[in-house]
Design goal:
186 residues; alpha+beta; Protein Transport Mog1p, Chain A; 10 strands; globular
């Protein structure tokens, strides 16, 4: 199973390119999934109170320091968990002012296009555009080469980037739906 660390690469692909993502993907092929899913879910409040999302356990929190194409530094906060053979990832970053967010669909499409390179046929099976709390968002589902499915929601509200990703055998099942439906933006 490709693990949750692969999912951490999503927003960085727009800014750093596919080589970094490919090495992250290869590292994940060696991570075995845990055997069962906990019955207890926890509300995870992310940095800056940007949003709350529920996960079936306490996630790892990592900070990835990055910079925009013009060199402005920013931090991506990633909260990830493997449980019951599924991977859950919630991420957020406050893009610096030099990132043009006036046309959010362009940034979101770039994230979709970069992530699609890891999918079977380099294509998403399903893409739906939405508006959530005045932020442009896109939800997508695709197949991974290892037989797993990937479902992601990427949202941009002003300079706030938000991403949820779920990887498993059933990305529309109760665990995935609970994860995505629990998102509450602050």
């Amino acid at each position: 199973m490709i693990g949750r660390r692969f999912l951490c690469a999503a927003p960085l692909l727009v800014l750093t390119g596919p080589a970094w993502a490919q090495s992250t993907l290869q590292a994940q092929l060696k991570t075995p999934p845990p055997a069962s899913i906990p019955t207890q879910w926890y509300g995870v409040q992310v940095v800056d109170n940007a949003f709350v999302v529920e996960m079936p356990g306490v996630p790892d929190h990592r900070i990835i320091n990055d910079s925009s194409a013009r060199g402005a530094a920013f931090a991506l906060h990633s909260y990830s968990l493997d449980a019951g053979g599924n991977s859950y990832v919630a991420q957020t970053a406050l893009y610096p002012q030099d990132v043009d967010t006036t046309q959010p669909k362009i940034l979101l499409q770039a994230a979709l296009d970069d992530r699609a390179q890891q999918l079977v046929g380099h294509k998403w099976r399903k893409i739906e555009w939405h508006l959530i709390d005045d932020g442009a968002s896109v939800e997508s589902i695709g197949s991974l080469p290892n037989g797993q499915m990937l479902r992601q929601l990427v949202l941009l509200k002003e300079h706030r980037f938000v991403s949820l990703a779920f990887m498993g055998a059933n990305v529309t099942g109760p665990e995935a739906n609970r994860f995505f439906n629990s998102l509450k933006l602050s």
